[in-house]
Amino acid sequence: MNDSKWLFAVKSEQELQLLTKTIDRIFLTISDYPDYDSGNFETIRFQAFEIWNNEPKHKNFSIIMENYYHKIFLEHIKRNPNKTPAPKNFWPYSYQFYLCNPVKVFEAIVEKANDNPSIDIKLLVSPDADRATLIPEPMPTSLLNLEELKILSNPDNQYTIEAQIKNGKSFNDLVSIASKKSINKGKLKEVLPFINQSARELLSLRDTDKIAEEKQKYKRR
């Protein structure tokens, strides 16, 4: 399957406090198929990320969980006290995920997983390493919508963005892409393929906390 994600059940103020304040570190592990789109199920990737709740650069994780509890969970309970709402889906490689500035601390690739597996450890951060020196994952700009791209291409943000421009392109090239009615993803990838933590601080979380009633039973892809 290709829908691996993390689920967070927050059913009380106490659980919310535990998840967002009391526990300093959220440790996220996930396994997936990096070559899923090409039908390769022999290669499996294992990764681990850390989010430190009480560090300012990771503040968006707490905001996401607080919004879920107050806007989704409690509202569902108000509508139907006898039904337990679904937990919060926290999707890897999503816009919201990257805005939490996750830090990767482990990655391993397993080749020929079904017949003759071999393990290649790509990254292993020691448990006692200083987390303050670790750089959060770069965010692909392909995740941005047009309004978000316009924020990055605002002249006021040129100093922050310009150092991340690639392939001999200029900030004006980014401005040109953002001036269109839709984003040319190919050109954007050539000019600004990723943005770092500093650029992400210019952006806001999306409002994804809307009540929705599922009419069909969920089935995995």
Question: How do you describe this structure in short?
Answer:
It contains eight helices and eight strands; from the N terminus they run βαββαβαβββααααβα. The protein has 221 residues and is an alpha+beta fold.
Order of helices and strands: EHEEHEHEEEHHHHEH
Radius of gyration: 20 Å
Q: Note the total helix count.
A: 8
The count of strands amounts to 8
Report what the structure shows:
- With about 220 residues, the protein is an alpha+beta fold.
- It folds into 2 domains: about 1-135, no CATH class; about 140-195, no CATH class.
- About 30% of the residues lie in helices and about 20% in strands.
- It contains 8 helices and 8 strands, in the order E-H-E-E-H-E-H-E-E-E-H-H-H-H-E-H.
- The strands form 3 sheets. Strands 2-3-5-6 form a 4-stranded antiparallel sheet, with no helix packed on it. A two-stranded antiparallel sheet has the order 1-4. A two-stranded antiparallel ribbon has the order 7-8.
- Strand 5 and strand 6 (about 120-125) form a beta hairpin.
- The chain is globular.
What order do the helices and strands come in, and which of them pair?
Blueprint: E1 6-8, H1 13-22, E2 25-32, E3 44-52, H2 59-79, E4 88-90, H3 95-99, E5 103-111, E6 118-124, E7 139-140, H4 146-152, H5 158-162, H6 171-178, H7 185-191, E8 194-195, H8 197-200
Antiparallel strand pairs: 1-4, 2-3, 3-5, 5-6, 7-8
Helix pairs in contact: 1-2
